[in-house]
């Protein structure tokens, strides 16, 4: 998996490209653990090129969720493919995390 970053004044956008599984979840965890990540008001996760997510990948997001909330950082997922969105829905994570259809809606939050 490849992770591409784009930062603006108050928003960090991460584009996930490929499969988020046990091995690649370490890369994502490293990105989300960086101290500067919590300095943004929003962290947007672009899932347009995310083809697959495993329980390990989901675990990374779940493990950082409280830390983001405590720091006042909004975590927003957008452009999620249907098969990936279904995994979030089946596990009930769509009610725990903010998932919107487009980048426009994600930046408006």
Describe this structure in words.
With 109 residues, the protein is α/β, with parallel strands linked by helices. The chain has a single domain, classed as 2-Layer Sandwich (Transcription Regulator spoIIAA). Helices cover 38% and strands 33% of the residues. It is built from 4 helices and 5 strands. It has helices at 25-33, 55-71, 82-90, 103-108, and strands spanning 2-7, 11-20, 42-53, 74-78, 98-100. The chain has a 5-stranded mixed β-sheet with strand order 1-2-3-4-5. Strand 2, helix 1 (25-33) and strand 3 (42-53) form a beta-alpha-beta unit. Helix 1 (25-33) packs parallel to helix 2. The radius of gyration is 13 Å and the shape is globular. The termini are far apart.
Share of β-strand residues: 25-35%
CATH class designation: Alpha Beta
User: Structural class, from secondary structure content?
Assistant: alpha/beta
Q: What are the secondary-structure elements, in order, as H or E?
A: EEHEHEHEH
CATH superfamily: STAS domain
Number of strands: 5
Write down the Rg. 13 Å
Shape: globular
Which percent range fits the helix content?
Answer: 25-40%
Distance between the termini: 27 Å
Low-confidence stretches: none
Task: Compute the number of helices.
Answer: 4
- What kind of sheet is the major sheet? 5 strands, mixed
Write a short abstract of this structure.
GO terms for molecular function: anti-sigma factor antagonist activity. Pfam families: STAS. The chain has 109 residues and is α/β, with parallel strands linked by helices.
Keywords:
5-stranded mixed sheet; single chain; 109 residues; 5 strands; alpha/beta; Transcription Regulator spoIIAA
């Amino acid at each position: 998996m490849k992770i591409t970053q784009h930062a603006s004044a108050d928003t960090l956008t991460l584009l996930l490209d490929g499969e988020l599984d046990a091995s690649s979840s370490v890369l994502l965890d490293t990105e989300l653990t960086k101290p500067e990540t919590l300095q943004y008001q929003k962290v947007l996760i672009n899932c347009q090129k995310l083809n697959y997510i495993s329980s390990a990948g989901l675990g990374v997001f779940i493990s950082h969720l409280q830390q983001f909330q405590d720091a006042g950082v909004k975590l927003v997922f957008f452009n999620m493919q249907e098969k990936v969105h279904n995994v979030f829905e089946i596990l009930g994570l769509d009610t725990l995390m903010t998932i919107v259809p487009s980048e426009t809606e994600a930046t408006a939050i």
